[in-house]
Design goal:
- The protein is of the alpha+beta class.
- The chain has 2 domains: about 5-30; about 35-145, Lipocalin (Beta Barrel).
- It is about 20% helix and about 35% strand.
- The protein has helices spanning about 5-25, 60-65, 100-105; strands spanning about 40-50, 55-60, 65-70, 75-80, 85-95, 110-115, 120-125, 125-130, 140-145.
- The protein has an 8-stranded antiparallel beta barrel with strand order 1-3-4-5-6-7-8-9.
Length: about 150
Amino acid sequence: MTIENKIIMRLILIPLLFFSLLFISAKDGCNSNKIRNPIYGNWVWAKTFCCGRNSVWSDPNTCGYSQNLEINPDGTYRLHRTNDKVQKGKYTIRKGLNDFQLQQGDTSLVIQMGEDPPSYINFIGDTLVLSRGYMDYDNVYYVREIVIIKNK
């Protein structure tokens, strides 16, 4: 094999190898089923801003209770207040508040838990905001529950 043939082979093989590796590594790389949804997990209620013209801030101190929200990848949720009130059931996540809003270009993520009105999903750092402010209702702020594992 001549030097010219070796150079031509390298010019063909190197890009071929590069693109082969690129396509192999990209296979299912953007598969939404493999992307961890940041809403999954345990959340601790921090504060709520509610409602309409006479809106006020409330939190565990002003209300006398706390609540935890657990959102599971299997489509179930559990909302537990320290006063033993528990709400649990199925939730759905979709884009747009409803079909009409989606057709109008509303592509924001929305969660609907059980029969409750849907809430827009927003993140401010590690804070989850579930907002129903679109109908002068509550904006609820949760922080991700951090589990500390002690080494023995």
